[in-house]
Write a structure and sequence with these properties.
The complex is a heterodimer. Chain A is an all-beta fold. Helix content of chain A is 0%, strand content 50%. In chain A, strands 2, 5, 6, 10, 11 and 12 form a 6-stranded mixed β-sheet that branches.
Chain lengths: 113, 116
C-alpha cells in the first residue's frame, strides 16, 4: 500500500548548520508531496509542497525537490535557526490514497544556539 | 478566516466516561479529517468526510469511536466508553474540493485527551 518513510530522529543541530531530513514514499501513480511542520503545542502547518516530478517546493528557507526516479522528497535548509526547532512530517496524497494525506512518522529537530 | 477550530483544547476524563471532541472546519472546505497522534503510532487517520458524508472510517479503532458531521460547519468525534489507551492528541483538519492535493490540509490546534 501507499506509505511514507522518514529519516528517524531526533536530529540535533547547532544554529546555522545545514539540515537534511530524508523522505521516501511508495505510491501508485503521481502523488502530490508535502512537508508539514508542528511547533510545540500546535497543530500541523503546511510548510511546502510539490505536485509533479522535478517540482521544487520552497518556503521560509526550506526546500524539497520531487524526485520521481528515487521516489524521494528530502527536506533541506542551508542555515537553521533555533526557531526551526519542531517536528517535521513528510506526506503524500494520491494514488490509492487519493483525497487523503498519508504521513510519515515525523522527525524531531532541535536547534541549539 | 479563523482557521479550523477545535474544542476543548484539553480534556481530562475518567475511564468509562463519554468524551466528545468538536471541530469547526474552514468555511467552504468540503473535506474534513480526524487524526489521532500518539508517540507510539504517530499520526493516524481515523475518518474523513466529504460534503458531510463519511467516506472512509477504516481508521476508527473500534466501535467505541464514532464521528458525525451534521452540517458543513460542525463535526464531532465521540468516544464511549473511554479508556486510558485513548489518551492522545486528536486533530481535525479541513481541505477544499478534492484537487489532487494542491492545497493540502489546514489543521486545528488539536484536543489533548487524557483518560485516567
Amino acid at each position: 500500500g501507499d506509505s511514507v518513510t522518514q529519516m528517524e530522529g531526533p536530529v540535533t543541530l547547532s544554529e546555522e548548520a545545514f539540515l537534511t531530513i530524508n523522505c521516501t514514499y511508495t505510491a501508485t501513480g503521481y502523488p502530490s508531496l508535502f512537508w508539514y511542520v508542528q511547533y510545540p503545542g500546535e497543530g500541523l502547518q503546511l510548510l511546502l509542497k510539490a505536485t509533479k516530478a522535478d517540482d521544487k517546493g520552497s518556503n521560509k528557507g526550506f526546500e524539497a525537490t520531487y524526485r520521481k526516479e528515487t521516489t524521494s522528497f528530502h527536506l533541506e535548509k542551508g542555515s537553521v535557526q533555533v526557531s526551526d526547532s519542531a517536528v517535521y512530517f513528510c506526506a503524500h496524497e494520491g494514488g490509492t490514497s487519493y483525497g487523503k494525506l498519508t504521513f510519515g512518522q515525523g522527525t524531531i529537530l532541535t536547534v541549539h544556539p | 478566516d479563523a482557521g479550523v477550530i477545535q474544542s476543548p483544547r484539553h480534556e481530562v476524563t475518567e475511564m468509562g466516561q463519554e468524551v466528545t471532541l468538536r471541530c469547526k472546519p474552514i468555511s467552504g472546505h468540503d473535506y474534513l479529517f480526524w487524526y489521532r497522534q500518539t508517540m507510539m503510532r504517530g499520526l493516524e487517520l481515523l475518518i474523513y468526510f466529504n460534503n458531510n458524508v463519511p467516506i472512509d472510517d477504516s481508521g476508527m479503532p473500534e466501535d467505541r469511536f464514532s464521528a458525525k458531521m451534521p452540517n458543513a460547519s460542525f463535526s464531532t468525534l465521540k468516544i464511549q466508553p473511554s479508556e486510558p489507551r485513548d489518551s492522545a492528541v486528536y486533530f481535525c483538519a479541513s481541505s477544499p474540493r478534492r484537487t489532487g492535493g494542491t492545497y493540502g490540509y489546514t489543521f486545528g490546534s488539536g484536543t489533548r485527551l487524557t483518560v485516567v
